[in-house]
Amino acid sequence: MGGSKQELPPFPRLLQSLEPGSLILFLGGSITEQNLYTLYFELYVRSRWQDKRFRFVNVGWAEHRIADALGRLQRDVLSRQPALVVAGFGLNDGQYRVADRGVLAGWRRDLDALAARLREAGAAVVVMSPTPVDPDMAPPLGRIRYNDSLEQLGKVAQGVAAARGCYFADVFHPLLRVQDMAKSLQSSFSCIPDGVHPDPVGHLVIAYHLLSALDLVVPAANATVDAASGQMLHAEGCRITDVQADVHGMSAVLWAEAPPFPLPPEAAGADALVPWQRELGFNHVAVVGLAEGHYGAYAGADRLGGYEAAELRHGVAIGVRDAVRSRWEAALAVARERFADHLFAWRRFDPGVEGSVGQGSPEIMEAYRALGAVQEEALRSLLRPMPLPLEILPEVELHFERFEVVGPYPLEGRDGFTTSFPPERGEDAPWAETAAHDPQTGFLDFVRLFGAVQQAVAYARCQLHVPHDAELRLRLGSDDGWRLLVNGRVVAGRDIYRGAAPGQDGVAVAVRAGWNSLLLRVNNGAGAWQLYCAGSVTGVHGRAAQEVRLACRT
Fold this sequence. Notes:
The protein has 554 residues and is an alpha+beta fold. It has helices spanning 11-17, 30-33, 37-48, 66-71, 73-76, 101-120, 139-143, 146-163, 172-185, 200-213, 276-280, 309-314, 322-349, 362-382, 446-450, and strands spanning 23-28, 55-58, 84-88, 124-128, 167-169, 222-226, 231-236, 238-246, 249-256, 283-288, 294-299, 302-308, 316-318, 388-398, 402-410, 432-435, 443-445, 456-466, 470-479, 482-486, 489-494, 505-511, 514-524, 530-538, 549-551.
């Protein structure tokens, strides 16, 4: 093996040293072609190094070994002049048998040749270990103890990486540990459902440990504010403006250099396996100088979390608001479309690819390049950080455990959102008290209460007492549309046809000292008919907080 061991700069410094517009390329087999760990890695790096305008290409090819990659290296990799190549091989190179001397020697030879050619071309290289298999889902691989073979391949890969001046990322052991830990709690668990290819949860675990191995796991923003003085004490990855604070709360605008990356929806189960959400999906904020008590973190109508003053002093992870989460989901969708378009163009129209129909079709390839440029710009736009208008307010959480309900009122062809009925006109109605079907979420199922009625309206009400003027912040979910009246006045509503989920809409409304009436109406088109109601009162602190209460009747 040629080459000599080299001292590598920290990987974040390497990224910072790359020229703007540099290409980062993924090379591997079917797990790379799945484009999941690659997708999460790509979007994270895009979001953290936005000024670099890095480009990304995935040339993973199912069933390929390193020998196959060497055969297409000039066409698919070197011709693109990548600045950085992330290479993920091993499962196929192990030949799905016991790793004898011949298998290990062939793996070392081919991996060394790949690393040497990439380094000679001037590319930085990340060599990943193989990923493990799940022998419970693929018993033949369990019988030959294939993970033992893959572990040996990983040790060889680490040695080759060191000798050739490449970065090394061990994703084998972390993913195996996650599998074993989860299986000890639930024997049927697997994030490698066919025994070989990880699902989105497994890919997110891989992406997290790839980022971790390269020292890239950092919070989007880290800030400390002294509420007592209104001064910013520390800011990393962000700046804070418009600070207004005292011992009972704070408001400010946090301008992060990069947006926090919330857990992708398809990988939601990974939250119990790796600290992605806690370390990458939040801004970290500490607020010192607050009086003791409970506080809520808000961005407009979005509640981002509830904390005790002691927690805030030590620093908490402030979650992303809905607008940021929506932009991330849009970015994931654009990046997936971009990969699908790239894959189709590369395999079908690139004249250099065997079996391509694109001989003599430069116009088609140019059209795909133009499309890719549009998608690149869309990604840059979606990943720009948004200012976070943050409020830390004393709050009393409300638990809507009981309501009075009345209905159903048939619509009989009338508009389900604007038509009013006796309860909202202040007229007598046959109200009946009922417990919430789930007190934790303030959930009411009107089908259970009134039967499977279509094209109808139902009402739920309760009374709220506050010791002085304050603000009520509700988090509502409904099937279908809803309208809220406070003290007989319509203050909010949404005309929509949807399934219900907690916290779909946020409402902030002033309430007066004493008792306040809350009236919610929910209209139903067909099928399920439901309401979720949760919330808090803000601006009440100290002993006065004990006077905040809910009741069905005053």
